[in-house]
Write a structure and sequence with these properties.
The protein has 162 residues and is α+β, with helices and mostly antiparallel strands. The chain is built from 5 helices and 6 strands, in the order E-E-E-E-E-H-H-E-H-H-H. The strands form 2 sheets. It has a 3-stranded antiparallel sheet with strand order 1-2-3, with no helix packed on it. Strands 5-4-6 form a 3-stranded mixed sheet. Helix 1 packs across helix 2, helix 2 crosses helix 3 and helix 3 packs antiparallel against helix 4. The termini are far apart.
Length: 162
């Protein structure tokens, strides 16, 4: 690790701490030559393979921008989008692969987005699941209704037990 002040090619680790809920390590370092201290953050790399075959680093910002379009006009805050992007990244990293297809990132967004806003979910799903007709929308809506009915039934059973 080069010192950012004097460009000396070595440094000594003074302190290490876990950061960002365990997804990164923050290290305090000291340069043996100029004796100045600096901080580095180490994270594992996650590469998204695009349709063209080119890889690029995973970006929460790109997730947020893609979902923001689906959430236009919906009661979804920037904080909601940031949390969604974090949840998507955590689920992708939990899969344990250093590379993931771009299409898989889109599919990983669907679950958290469905919990966040059903209309935004339908908008996003129509692109990533390649809806081609009204039947596709009707089928997706029927699935959402069925899941809502199951949740309501589970809640009623849990309420009766209490």
């Amino acid at each position: 690790m080069y010192c950012p002040f004097c460009r000396h090619p070595d440094s000594r680790v003074v302190d290490s701490r876990v950061a960002d809920d365990g997804s990164a390590i923050r290290r305090r370092r000291q340069c043996p030559q100029c004796e100045r201290r600096f901080t580095t953050v180490e994270t594992t790399s996650l590469t998204v393979i695009k349709r063209s075959g080119i890889g690029e680093p995973f970006s929460r910002g790109k997730v947020i921008n893609g979902v923001r379009k689906a959430c236009q006009g919906r009661p979804v805050t920037e904080d909601d989008l940031a949390l969604l992007a974090q949840e998507v990244e955590e689920s992708i990293r939990a899969a344990g692969s250093a590379e993931i297809e771009a299409h898989e990132v889109g599919l990983a967004i669907l679950g958290p987005l469905q919990k966040l806003d059903k209309i935004a979910y339908l908008r996003f799903a129509s692109v990533y699941q390649a809806f081609e007709s009204l039947d596709d929308f009707e089928h997706a809506i029927a699935l959402l209704r069925h899941e809502a009915e199951l949740k309501a039934a589970d809640s009623a059973v849990d309420g009766a037990r209490a």
